[in-house]
Write a structure and sequence with these properties.
229 residues, six-stranded parallel sheet, globular, alpha/beta
């Protein structure tokens, strides 16, 4: 059965994990307090601050307390929806001012362009918010890559280590799972996609083998013809 769609992870796959942890997270941590203070009265931001209060079970928390909670969540690497939304807003400002440029490996850029030209539908599935995904590719060091993609998925589709998430994505794409290949650097994610019926491709940029999955070190090791097998 030929592959018709390619679903890719970001961190460790198309982009360096270090970009998220060494660039994006510190940028958000440094700039989030000022951003929240400056925009707290705007509806989109105010809604997320209310969500923080609800999640923290502190309905009376003032703005400074909410900022403190957010910084605690960043330190804990907590996957809280309002935190991700506010981080996305801070990053969007950083990308638009040119302070941030999304990291995408050159081999990934070339392969994504080739796959798009070959007629494959390209999708992203990451634990980062859809907005964060679009910013990384939209303001990448290689320019705006968003025209290459047909859609984006985050954890609103389900956890990345749960097979049902990949069934949900295949249904949303409108293809049988066995016509979609998923690329990731995490074995448990690949296992879940495989359980859902997807083809898989492990990415081990430092070398090695992701157990039970075809594994590459670089996107350059895959040709478009690979996906017709």
């Amino acid at each position: 059965m030929p592959i018709k769609a390619i679903l890719t992870d970001i961190e460790g796959t198309t982009s360096a994990v270090s970009f998220v942890f060494d660039v994006l997270f510190p940028f958000a941590q440094q700039n989030l307090p000022h951003y929240v203070r400056a925009h707290a009265s705007e509806p989109a931001v105010a809604a997320q601050l209310e969500a923080v209060r609800a999640d923290a079970e502190e309905p009376q928390a003032d703005t400074e307390r909410v900022i403190a909670i957010l910084l605690e969540w960043i330190a804990q690497d907590r996957k809280a929806t309002p935190l991700k939304a506010l981080q996305g807003m801070v990053w969007a400002e950083g990308y638009k001012t040119g302070e941030l440029k999304g990291h995408v490996y050159p081999d990934a850029v070339m392969a994504l362009q080739q796959w798009h030209e070959a007629g494959f539908a390209l999708y992203v599935y990451s634990s980062g918010s859809i907005q964060a995904q679009q910013l990384i590719f939209g303001y990448s060091q290689a320019g705006d890559l968003t025209p290459l993609f047909s859609g984006y998925f985050d954890t609103t589709s389900g956890g990345k280590r749960e097979a049902q998430s990949y069934r949900n994505i295949a249904e949303a794409i409108g293809l049988p799972a066995n016509e979609v290949v998923f690329l990731s650097d995490i074995v448990q994610e690949l296992d879940a996609a495989q359980e859902a019926g997807m083809r898989t491709c492990g990415v081990a940029r430092e070398g090695g083998k992701l157990a039970n999955h075809f594994t590459i070190r670089s996107f350059a090791e895959i040709s478009a013809e690979t996906f017709y097998l």
